[in-house]
Amino acid sequence: MTNRRRFIRGIAALSGLSLAGCGWRLGNVRASATTGSRDQMYIYTWEQYTNKDLLKTFSAQTGIKVLADLYDSNEAMLSKIQAGGGSAYSVIYPSDYMVRKMVDLGLLTRLERDRIIGLDNLFPRFQNPIYDPNNRHSIPFSWGTTGFIYNSEKLKTPPENWDYLWENKQLLSKRMALMNDFREVMGAVLKMLGYSYNSTNENEIKQAFDTLKVLQPDIAAFTTDAWRNQIIAGDLLLAMCYSSDAVKIIKENPKLKYVIPKSGSSLWTDTVVIPKIAPNIEAAYAWINLILRPEVASEMSQTLILSTPNRAGFEQLPKKIQNNSSLFPPEAILTKCERLAPLGQEVEALYERYWIELTSG
Questions:
Q1: How many CA atoms lie within 13 A of 261 on its CB side?
Q2: Torsion of CA 136, 142, 145, 150, to 10 degrees
Q3: At a CB cut-off of 8 Å and minimum separation 6, what does 304 contact?
Q4: Vertex 329, ends 306 and 246: CA angle to 5°?
Q5: Strand 138-151 relative to strand 267-273: parallel, antiparallel, unpaired?
Q6: 142, 269 in Cβ contact below 8 A?
Q7: Are 313 and 294 in contact (CB under 8 A)?
Q8: Rounded average pLDDT over 265-292
């Protein structure tokens, strides 16, 4: 199964954030400490999506202690939940395609909208997503795209589309990296060929594989993580990556640039959900109401360097961040992007067979 995304290691600290004194309210959910599991809540999340100040704010307003367990892939999270872990967590942070899978498996609570305050703060794009119509089971937390990070000093002609790799494979030979993610890599090539990122057509998938085989000898590595140090050191000229990772690395080295291929790419969203057997439902709704606050969304966007789906939070961002096209691409680009969708076991097995042949060659 594909690993959706592995985030930069280490929990980001909100050094400039003082939430507890802001007088925020958590909406109409008044979760108060009682006994047993009611005086604490476990959340299951990605490494960069939690921080001590946010946990302290929640605890100060509810009397509930929050404990966070971390995972590095959607599949690892799902395995744990299916093994019974859903009874331990009140809040989980799955990615968009995993929400759909968890709904189909009957693992998620259908949200009671009258217990949630701030849904109208979201951009319209995130109020009725294809992976979860009308946000019945999930609330978007962050989003981003897939594209290229490249060395603008060494590559005078910037990569504008996926076909740049094939057209410049001699220049890039052994100095380019693609993700270790068969859905993203195969999807990108499908998009370049004029097909859907989520194609289920066997002939189209085979065509994407054959196209990748041509490039395979010139690829330095299939990695979702190791490219960072390599591109900073100059060993790589270009790497396929997620926008959230690219923006962080560019802050370290401004000669690096990020671009979304003009033929389109993937558009991903990470969300907040409540497991069907969550032990502390009231606390979970209180948590959702906190992260939907515009002030919280804005501060997390700035400090964790992520794209917020919260329009009211976006409007509170400095203009420099609002105008950062790596974080917030123009609509003309976003309309060409697709969300990853579950393909069904048989089709995913086909992708994976091709992927194993490609990466083991």
A1: 28
A2: -170
A3: 12, 14, 48, 49, 51
A4: 50
A5: antiparallel
A6: yes
A7: yes
A8: 94
Sign of CA dihedral 347, 350, 352, 354: negative
For the chain, state the CA radius of gyration.
Answer: 21
93: phi then psi, degrees, rounded to nearest 5: -120, 65
- Give the separation between CA 313 and CA 303, rounded to whole angstroms: 13
| E-strand stretches of 152-280 | 176-178, 221-222, 238-242, 256-259, 267-273
Q: Is the pTM of this model over 0.85?
A: no
Residue that is written with structure tokens 């701030």 in the block: 118
pLDDT digits (tens, 9 = 90+) for 180-199: 888 899 999 999 999 999 99
Local structure of 92: helix, strand or coil: strand
SS3 category, 145:
strand
Task: Tokens for 18, please give them.
Answer: 């003082």
Amino acid making up residue 81: I
- Locate 6 and state its tokens: 């592995």
Q: What percent of the chain has pLDDT over 90?
A: 65
Are 275 and 81 a contacting pair, CB within 8 Å? Answer: yes
